[in-house]
Write a structure and sequence with these properties.
The chain has a domain of 200 residues: Rossmann fold, CATH 3.40.50.1100. The radius of gyration is 21 Å and the shape is globular. It is built from 13 helices and 13 strands. α4 runs parallel beside α5, α8 crosses α9 and α12 packs across α13. It is α/β, with parallel strands linked by helices. It has a 6-stranded mixed sheet with strand order 4-5-13-10-11-12, with helices on both faces. Strands 8-7-6-9 form a 4-stranded parallel sheet, with helices on both faces. A 3-stranded antiparallel sheet has the order 2-1-3, with no helix packed on it.
Length: 400
């Protein structure tokens, strides 16, 4: 175990990593810090191909001390797919999609859940609570079931139906709320105070981000430790883009990648774009987005707790933040199916809509290697496609 401490990115206060700690006393999320010089002596990138084919291959860069506490369903090492057809349509010779839709529970949330729940188990947590737009709740409920930890999940009543069913089948205590994830968060906050539950809300525990940072390590490994020029990420709570940036900085310190960073792009929906507005105004934090709504339900987060960390990652890499309309999202959602045979989630489709915009504006050059993050399978959103084909009688013939 190579964790040195938990650190506050705002006030720089440090904490021990072997006890239950949620936020810094200043209210900021905490980040896990490692003794990377010790990691260098124990782990080399050349040794990775001989290791297990999941995210726990990066064991030394993850916080769990005891192997017995790891709760895994086989998550990680998702494919990096070249979008030959759409890339050619856009004039991009190196357009890739990293498909998180094929891992347990069907979304990238499994990455945060495996590490977050494993650490909760190691810290002696017996019950936890979290607000969610759906997929995180489904993932954490499943991993909690495997760990023997009780989960209390609160999500908006308009959340997709599949994650709700995941919570039910996993035996979670599931509650629906009239409102948004921010309203669910208020209810969870009261439950945490009333019952002493472990708060697993986004960035209110330090370990979810450690699972999600493995997307960044995998991308670097899949590119032969020569990172792409651009990475686009659908940004709600923002943990994914924060984690990818954290991973790349750690890899630089280890000497596994060079000094060049990919330009990180935070993609949001125009109906809920607090980070985009903050970036456009050159601010370091966002303002609560009133009356937010979008078909990409997973990124409908009016005010991310870690907004300042998202913006830092974007600024530090000379990236940008882009808002796309629901119409653009659903247009490329169908395009990915027709042209590439991919059924992605609306949040993942948003990144392709952003690429199209950035190519048109000249921000992305034709020969650059561009990676889209599809954060989940479209099967989690059965209502995103209107499937009403004609019904034939046995005696009818097909007319093409």
């Amino acid at each position: 175990m190579f964790v040195s401490h938990l650190g506050c990115p705002k006030c720089h206060k440090t904490y021990e990593s072997n006890r239950k700690i949620q936020l810094c006393t200043c209210g900021s999320p905490l980040l896990v810090e490692y003794d990377l010089q010790k990691v260098k002596k124990s782990l080399t990138k050349e040794s990775l191909p001989q290791r297990r084919n999941d995210l726990w291959r990066y064991r030394e860069l993850l916080p769990v001390r005891e192997e017995k506490n790891i709760v895994t369903l086989g998550e990680g090492m998702t494919p990096l797919l070249k979008l030959h057809n759409i890339g050619a349509d856009m004039g991009l010779s190196n357009l890739f999609l990293k498909d998180e839709g094929i891992i347990p529970t069907g979304t990238f949330k499994a990455r945060g859940a495996t590490v977050g729940v494993s650490m909760a188990k190691e810290l002696g947590v017996t019950a936890l609570a979290m607000p969610t737009n759906g997929n995180a709740g489904g993932a954490w409920a499943m991993y909690c079931a495997a760990a023997g930890i009780r989960s209390v999940i609160v999500m908006p009543k308009d959340a997709p139906s599949i994650p709700r069913k995941e919570c039910v089948i996993a035996g979670a205590s599931l509650y629906l709320v009239e409102g948004l994830i921010s309203d669910a968060g208020k209810i969870v906050g009261r439950a945490v105070a009333d019952y002493g539950l472990y708060d697993a809300s986004t960035l209110k525990e330090p370990y979810r981000i450690e699972g999600k940072k493995t997307m960044g390590i995998e991308i670097a490994e899949q590119f032969g430790w020569d990172v792409p020029e651009v990475i686009l990420y659908p940004t709600g709570g923002g943990v994914g883009i924060i984690g990818i940036y954290k991973a790349l900085k750690e890899l630089q310190e280890l000497g596994w990648i060079g000094p060049r960073m990919p330009r990180l792009v935070a993609v949001q929906a125009s109906g809920c774009a607090p980070v985009v507005r903050a970036w456009q105004e050159k601010k370091t934090e966002s303002v609560f987005w009133e009356n937010s709504q979008t078909v990409a339900f997973g990124i409908n987060v009016p005010k991310p707790l870690g907004d300042f960390l998202v913006l830092d990652a974007v600024y530090a890499t000379n990236g940008c933040a882009v808002a796309v309309t629901d119409e653009e999202i659903m247009d490329v959602h169908a395009l990915l199916g027709r042209r590439e045979g991919l059924f992605v989630c609306p949040e993942g489709a948003a990144t392709l809509a952003a690429v199209r915009r950035l190519v048109q504006e000249g921000w992305i050059e034709k020969n650059e290697r561009v990676v889209l993050l599809n954060t989940g399978t479209g099967l989690k959103y059965p209502d995103s496609v209107d499937a009403r084909p004609p019904v034939l009688q046995p005696s009818d013939s097909i007319k093409l």
